[in-house]
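P.,

For your records, the input lines for the assembly:
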Amino acid sequence: MHPGLRALARLQRQAWRRRVLRSLRSPRGLLSALLILGLLGLWVGGAFLQAPLLDGSSDAGLRRQLAGVMLSALLLIAVVNGIAHRGVYLPPEELERLLSAPVPRADLVRYRLSRMLVRGLPFAAILGALLARNMPSPAHAWPPAALAILLIPIVAQLLALALSVSDGLASRLAARVPRGLLRLLLLPVLIGIPLILTEARELFPAGALDGDRARELLDHPLVRWGTLPLAPFTWAMAATTAAAALLRTAACVGVLVALYQLTVRLPIDFREVSIETSRDLAQRIARVRSGSGGVAAMGADSGAARRRMGWWAGRGPFGALVWLRSTELLRRAGRVVYVALLQLALAVFLGTVLVQDHAGGAVLVLALSTYHLSTTIRADLRADLDRMQEVKAWPLPASQTFLASVLPGALVAGLLVSGALVLRAALAGGVRELDLVLAAAAPVLALVWGCVENLSFLVAPVRFTPGEVGTLQSMGRVMLHSLANLAVVGLVVAPAVGVSLGTARLLGEGLFAQLAGLGAACAFALGLVGALSLLGGRALRRLDPSRVLA
Amino acid sequence: MAESSGDSGAAGHPPVLRVRGLTRSYGGRPAVQGLDLEVARGEVLGLLGPNGAGKTTTLRSIAGVLPLQGGSVEVAGCDLARSEVEAKRSLAWVPDDPRPFDALTVAEHLEFTAHLYGVEDHRERARVLLERFELAERTSALGSELSRGMRQKLAIAQAWLSNPAVVLLDEPLAGLDPRGIRGARTAIRELASEGTAVVLSSHQLDLVEAMADRLLVLSRGRVVFSGTLAELRAARAESSLEEVFLELTAEGDEA
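Structure tokens returned:
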């Protein structure tokens, strides 16, 4: 690699260390970092404490197949990333300087790859150790498993470069075809969710993965052929003696080096697509940094402008703001609608298969779906961190700005959850009164949830910094926010449920009593939404954009 | 030295923007200290000062973006603290780096603004503004597809649309090409001639010199000069605004 690029990589590592240490000097930064490290430790520790997927009686072939399936899933992510990011991604501060620098293009690929590999080492070590636990000799399996994880950045970069051929023509075609194909493949899957869920229920009637059935699946010819490209790695992971492990791991290193060399030596001019990719990624990172996730982190392309939203909440200032948020949802949601539907399908699956009790399953679906969709379907004040100057200057009461921003996303999420509840009830033996009551309450719960999340965001805005200094701290704060939000939502929902049960008990039994209880609970919750909006407005007025714009 | 604690407004016209004793600090560090200013209808007030002098903080406080810590702001007779919504309805704010909505087209930004500010029959006015700011051919472009200059033009067009009593512009010409600068300058003058009070902050002294009826020079959060350009020149031996500016704000520069 060019000495200049080596020096740049070294200086950036030093700068990163320096800035991390500096951020740890403040008590708040230290606390956040400790919190996230503690939670990560718990997660990784918990994963290690769990029993391996295959018990001691499983044969080596089955273990290799399992490792192959897991690695294939990870490589699939690499393939998707490779298609999405063409050329060589360089952050904005490096792009123009490095593309114009007197260094061979192959060195730019080496520079980028080496940075990705260095960053990926801890991840590879942890994930490799987790994968190795299912192998006959975990200690021998760990190095090749970690090497297999390091395949991901190399394969992703190789694909990204291959798709740069003909000035990005291949990449443009590839970017369109797989997305279209994906939609075509996903559509029947999503439409057939009820059938899939019914089938899944029959496959796993006991609510747990059946061992024999899992073995059958792993031994299927399709799985065997599909995992064949990873055979050198799974073969090395299955070694039972030190000598065999050493020899096979050396072969894995050879494969890795060969792929690395192939990647850096591809005679492809990637400059034009790299500029495009770097710009797209920089915009995406900027959106994520501005507090956005889910729908709000998605960009809208020119085709989205054809989708128009009506002025369904009137044409006054409040209606205008509702229209704005609804339009944002409509034009950005295209790319995450499948994620939202899959989240719902997962919640329905878990609520149907894992929980035997009808009411318990319904509550599980309600809680899980609302939690996930509040993150996925969001186009509210959390996406406006960089635009707070304009938002705060709008001529309507801050509480109305708050409510109008939360309302559309919460309504969409709530209605989807209602649908999921009815679907789950139908799968679990029939729709009962309780299912209808919960389905009617779902939009109100989603509204409460959205209000609480926006309020906590305005009180202490978190600017997420992926891949940069402060990542640990911001992740810690995000987790703290989530825990606090859950606690507040619990505090808000508990009395509403109490009001509902109390009203229903006073009126006796039957549908009327349940409906009256539902009405009382919703009225109570909507009163709380009003109170939360006032508090949200107050928090919005107090928010100082100059503190969060930096 | 023509130093004063504030600004006395334009003679002969009632002020449409009145700021009294504006004070703002960040973590105990004063950013603006007891600032007074008045701007009359049809007047252009230029806000000058080195980096960190308190120009943007002043504008944000007047726009209601920052909560008032001390002092009062009155826009078209409405007190910002007591009647925030009414005051904001008479006011338009263009920040230095406007952020349009990624998912909205240029035309929809104007439509949204019209409904937000209750502008009736906005279509014709929007069409004229799109023409004036050379956005007519980009009406279907999404906010995410606009260049820095285009974003600036769109923000100015949005500000103009509601026909506000007061327009606050923070570095309004940053990012504009020469044609855009000329268009914006003409537009600002026309806006003022229609009776709108304009407060603009800029580092471009030639722009301020050419456009502002009066100047307010800030340094370290304090007003170090308030008056017309002629008054400034009369009080100083220096002939150019640049030299006067450098002398007035020398203390701020050293900080």
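Two observations worth noting. Chain B has ten helices and ten strands. Chain B touches chain A through 35 residues (CB under 8 Å).

Regards
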